[in-house]
Amino acid sequence: MVIVGIDPGLGTTGWAVVTGAAEHPVLAAYGAIHTDPSRDPAERLLVIFERIRELLSIHRPEEVAIEDVFLAKDTRAALALGQARGAAMLGAAVGGMVVRSYSPREIKQSVTGNGRASKEQVAYMVERLLGLSGPPRPADCADAAAIALCHLHRRDAAKVESASH
Predict the structure, then answer these.
(1) Residue 158 has what pLDDT?
(2) What crossing angle do the helices spanning 104-112 and 139-164 adopt, rounded to 10°?
(3) Three-class SS of residue 8?
(4) Which residues pair with 30 in a beta bridge?
(5) Is 74 noted as a catalytic residue in this protein?
(6) 13, 17, 47, 123: least buried by Cβ within 10 Å?
(7) Catalytic annotation on 67?
(8) Order of strands, edge to edge, in the sheet holding 2-7?
(9) Active-site residue, from 36, 140, 143, 161
(10) Could you report the per-residue pLDDT of 109-157, keeping only the tens digit for each?
(11) pLDDT on residue 155
(12) Rounded mean pLDDT of the chain?
């Protein structure tokens, strides 16, 4: 199984490719898409869209997992996040990918066992679950790996559940 996790953001969109099964996941690749804040927002969204399409054509995942938009104190930040998320989802959908969304709470719960875990706790568990010597950097990449791990866990749990019925 090859899963791409995406942590969307207009300035930085983190991504991670996780392979294998939930019991033995492997971080195959990760990175960040950076956009220039001095550029027009539409140009920045196009960069996200194109880079997502590019990375999916290189890594050829079976599925894509992305973080849901959370409520932010700053309306502008929430809007920019939603736009970046839309550009990333469109990039995946144009490539024919199945895209699954998870809330920040679901991701934290899946990776740490605590839906209110801190970013540091999530990064630490990503490091442990993937057998790394440190969390992926920047933090957006560790978050993207957590999103991919969440999807892998949910997917495997659904298989077990359907096999027991």
Answers:
(1) 65
(2) 80
(3) coil
(4) 16
(5) no
(6) 47
(7) yes
(8) 26-34, 12-19, 2-7, 63-67, 98-102
(9) 140
(10) 999 999 999 999 999 999 999 999 999 999 999 999 999 999 999 987 6
(11) 84
(12) 93
